[in-house]
Specification:
Distance between the termini: 79 Å
Oligomer: single chain
Strand content: under 5%
Order of helices and strands: HHH
Radius of gyration: 43 Å
Number of helices: 3
Structural class: mainly alpha
Shape: flat
Number of strands: 0
Length: 148
């Protein structure tokens, strides 16, 4: 049908060189942009990793400090040590006849604590599901297969 036409003349060499050079420059610029993005992402990632390491070090330091403070508190609140300190301050154990209870009129004590029931024992025998969802697959199959 339509035959391909043959080019009657060749491109000049400087045009071919210009085309090759421009494509090479385009590929080089694209690679430089990708490399720049790669470096930017990696520098942010390295910075975030360093911050994580610093925060973990701070957490370990704080945990160590908390442990030391808890040990000091345990040492100071040791019952034997507290009895010695109370004796050195002049305190002594009270005898039952030395204890005086003060009654305050109008005081209503808080109600006694009643522990809640565990979730499994709440409403025993009563299901929270709709009756439509309490049938097992076997029961449904039996009901479906048996004629009424």
């Amino acid at each position: 049908m339509t035959a391909r036409k043959k080019q009657a003349f060749r491109q000049t060499p400087w045009r071919v060189q210009l085309r090759v050079t421009s494509r090479t420059v385009q590929v080089t610029v694209a690679l430089l942009v990708v490399a720049g993005l790669y470096l930017a992402v990696n520098s942010r990632l390295a910075d975030a990793g360093r911050q994580v390491l610093v925060l973990e070090d701070q957490r370990e330091t704080l945990q160590r400090g908390n442990s030391e403070l808890m040990a000091q508190l345990a040492e100071k609140t040791n019952p034997e040590r507290m009895l010695e300190r109370a004796a050195s301050l002049g305190y002594k154990p009270a005898d039952p006849d030395e204890i005086f209870y003060l009654q305050v009129e109008g005081y209503v004590p808080p109600p006694a604590f009643v522990a809640p029931r565990p979730p499994t024992s709440r409403l025993e025998g009563v299901s929270r599901l709709s009756p439509a969802y309490t049938e097992t697959l076997g029961e449904w199959m039996t009901r479906w297969l048996t004629p009424d």
